Amino acid sequence: MSSVTEQQHDQAAHHDGHHHPAKGFKRWLYTTNHKDIGSLYLIFSLTMFLIGGAMAMVIRAELFQPGLQLVEPHFFNQMTTVHGLIMVFGAVMPAFTGLANWMVPLMIGAPDMALPRMNNWSFWILPFAFIILLASLFMPGGGPAFGWTFYAPLSTTYSNDNTALFVFAVHIMGISSIMGAINVIVTIVNLRAPGMTWMKLPLFVWTWLITAFLLIAVMPVLAGAVTMVLTDKYFATSFFDAAGGGDPVMFQHIFWFFGHPEVYIMILPAFGIISTIVPTFSRKKLFGYASMVYATSSIALLSFIVWAHHMFTTGMPVAGELFFMYATMLISVPTGVKVFNWVATMWRGSISFEVPMLFSIAFIVLFTLGGFSGLMLAITPADFQYHDTYFVVAHFHYVLVTGAIFSIMAGAYYWLPKWTGNMFNITLAKWHFWLSLVSVNVLFFPMHFVGLAGMPRRIPDYALQFADFNAIISIGGFAFGLSQLLFVVVVFKCARGGDKVPAKVWDGAEGLEWEVASPAPYHTFETPPEIK
Amino acid sequence: MGKLSSTLWLILFVLPQQVLANNQFNMRKGVTDISNDVYQLHMTIFIICCVIGVIVFAAMFWALIHHRKSKGAKPAQFHESTKVEILWTAIPFVILIAMAVPATKTLISMEDASKADLTIKITGSQWKWHYEYMGEDVAFYSILSTPQEQITNQVDKSSTYLLEVDKPLVLPINQKVRFLMTSDDVIHSWWVPDFAVKKDANPGFINETWTKINEEGIYRGQCAELCGKDHGFMPVVVEAKSEQAFANWLSEAKQAKANAAIADAALLDQILPKEELMTLGEQVYMASCAACHQPTGMGLPGVFPALKGSPVVLGDIKDHIDVVLHGRPGTAMQAFDKQLSIKQLAAVITYKRNAWGNDTGDVIQPSQIQAAIDATSEAK
Ligand code: HEM
Ligand SMILES: [Cu+2]
Ligand SMILES: [Cu+2]
Hints:
Chain B: It is found in: Cell membrane; Membrane. The complex is a heterodimer of chains A (about 525) and B (about 375). In chain A, about 70% of the residues lie in helices and about 0% in strands.
C-alpha cells in the first residue's frame, strides 16, 4: 500500500512542479521553462558584461598614460583578447538568446520553446565554457593573447600550451549557440498561434529567425577554424603554415566568413528590439513593416559576401578588393532603410520619453554614427589608413556598445516590468541612461581622432602625441564602467519589489506579450490565442 | 558684409579646415600623390556622411520636439508609402556610386607596382624589421631604440618615444620604390601613414606595394598587425633623402659592409678579453634577447624559457651556440646567425654563460662561432 501512496505522492509532486517552479538550485539546474532559462541567460550575460568590463578597465588604466605602468605587455594582450571574447560570446550573444527565450514564445503565443530539454542544455554548458576560458588566465603562460580574431600562426606555432583550453571553450560556446538557434527556428516555424501568418510576426521574432539561420550557417565554420588551429598546433598539420603547404591568410578567410555574419548576429536582434520599442512610444504603427523584413533578410544575405573587407591589407588581387568594397557599400542601403523607417515611425507620432525609448533614440543616433564609420571603412584605399587603428576600435564599439548593448538595455527596461510585475526605479534608470550616454561618447568618440592620427590597436603603450586623448578616453571609460553598476542596482531592486504594473505596462504597446498578466505567469498560452 | 558674416565664415569654413588639417585629429595628407588622393577620399566620404547625418537627425529631432505627446500631438495613421521607400533606397544607391568611382580609381593606381626604380624587401620578425636593398647588397635590421628606462617611466620620454629606431630605412625621393613584404614568423603589417602604405607581411608569402615620396624628411609609422608581446614596440622609420644624398648613403653603406667583413676576418686570430665580451654581450642581450628572455634572464613562465640556470646555457658550448645560431624552428626562438656579427654572437653567449649567477666562467671567442658556422655550411 505504502508504495502506492508514495507513487501518488510522487505524481502529485511532479504535477505540482509543473505549475509552480521547484525551490532552490535544482529549479534552475533542471528547468525546462523558457522564462527561467531566459532569466538564466540574462543574468549570465550581465555577469559576463561586468567581468569583460573589468578587463576593459584594466586596458584603459594601462592606457591612461604613455609608458608601462600596471601590466606587462603579454598580460595586456590577454586582457584585450579575453575582453573581446567575453563581450562577444559571453555578454551580447547570451543576452539576445535570453531575450529570445523570454519573449519569442510570448510574442507568438506559444506555451514554451519547442525543444525545452535542449534549451536547458544549451544554457548550462555555457558557464563551463567561460570557466575554462577564464581559468586559462591563471595558468602558467596565461590565457589567449592573440586577439579575439586568433590569427594563425600567432595562435598556432607561436601561442602557448593553454591554447587547447581556448579551443575547447569556443567549441562549447558554438554548440550552445547552435542549439539555441535550432530551438528558435523550430519554435517560430511550428508554434505560432493560429492566425499568426508570417507577415504578422512581430519584428523581434523576424529578426531573431533570420539571426538563427545565420548562427546555424556560420558557427560550424568557427568550429572548423578552431579545430584547424588545434590540429596545426598539437598534431602537426599545416592548414595555416606555408612550410607545410598551408596558408596563414586562408585562416583569415575562414575566420571572417564566420566573423562578418557574426557581427550581424549581434545587431539584427537589436534592430528587432528597436523596431518594437519605437512604435510603442510614438504611439504609431511601425513604418514600412514589409520593407523592414526585406531589409533584414537582404542584410543577412549580403553579410555572406563581404567578409574580406576585414582583409584588404593582406594583399588581395585588385578585382577581389573591388568586389568586397562594392558589396560592403551595398549593405549600407538596407541598413539606411531601417534608420529611415524608424525616423518615419516617429514622424507625426505622439512621442514620449520613457527609459526604453531614451535608449532606443540613443541607439538610432549612435548606431548610425557607427554605420557611417563603417561606410568609410568600406572604401578600400581609405581603409588602408584606418585598418587596425583605433578608428576601427571606435567603429565597432559604436555598433556594439551603443548599438547592441544599448538595444539590450532598452529591451531590458521595456520588458523588465513584464518579467517582474514591478516598475523599476525610473529616476535611477534615467540617471543610468544619461550617465551612460555622456560617458560612452567621452569614451569612444575621441578614439576616432587617435585612430586617424595613427594609433594602432592592441598596443599597451603609445607615442606621446596620443597622450591627451587617451587620458580623456580612459576617464570616459571609468565613468561608463561605473555607470553600469547603476543598471545592476535598478535590476536588482526591480526584481525585489516596486510599484505593481498592469498587464499592458506601456499604453502604446502592442503584441501578445502584453495580454498576459504582469509578472508573466510561469506558464502562458497553454491554449493558443486566436489572432484575428 | 558685416562682422557677423565674416565670423560665420570663420566658424563654418576656416575653423573646421584648421582643426581637421591638424594631425592630432585627422588623417594625414602625407607626402605622396597617393596619400593625398586617399586623404581627399577620406574627406569626401566624411562630408557626405555628415550631410546625410544632419538631414536624417534634423528630421528625427524635429519629430522628437514637435510631435511630443506632452505637447498634445495626436499620432498620424500612415505606416507605409511605396513611393517614399523606393526613393530612399534609390538615393543612397546613387550616392554610393558617386563614392565608388573615385575610390576605384585610387585603388587601381595604388595596386600598380610596375616600373619601379628601386626594390626593397621588407621582412618582419618578432619584433623588428629587416630591410634588403635588392641588387645592391645592402641589408640591415631596424630595431626600436627607445631605452627601457623611458618605457618603464624612470626617465623622461623623448619626443619620438616609441617611434624611433637604431637604423631607419633610407629611401630616395621622386623615385618609384617597390616593397616586397614577407615575414619570418607571425603576420606583421608595415605601415607608414604619410605614404598611405599599409601591407601585411605574411610568413611564407610575398606581398607587393609601392610608394613615391615627394618630400625629404623623416616619416614614422608602426607595425599594425598584432604580432605577439611586443607588437606595440615595433616602429617603422623612413628617412627620405634627395636622389644624390641617397646615392651617397648607399655607397657608404656598401663600404661599411666591406669594412665589417674585414674586421670580422681579423677577429678570427684574436683572443678578446672577457670584460670586453661581457660589456658588449650585455648590450646585445638587451637589444636582441631581453624582449623574450627578459633582462633578468628569467623568461616568462610558459611562454619564453628562463636562461638563468637553463641546462642549455650551462651545458655543452657547441649545443648552446647551435641554438643561438639556428634558433629552434617552429618556435619563437629565431636564428641569429644572420642577425648578429660573430663578435656579437661570441659576446652574447659569453654574457649568458656568466650573468645572473650562471657562473660557468666560459669565454667564447669569435673564432669558435665562425667554426660553428663553417661546420653547418659544410654539412649542407
Ligand atoms: C565597458 C566599456 C568598454 C570599454 C571601456 C572597452 C574598451 C576597449 C578597448 C580600449 C579595446 C581596444 C583594446 C586594444 O585594441 O588595445 C577594446 C577591444 C574590444 N572590445 Fe571593448 N570596451 C568596452 C565594451 C565592449 C563591449 C560591450 C563589447 C562587445 C559587445 C566590446 C567588444 C570589443 C572587442 C570585440 C574588442 C576587440 C578585441 C581584440 O582586439 O581582439 N567592448 N575594448
Ligand atoms: Cu565585417
Ligand atoms: Cu605587430
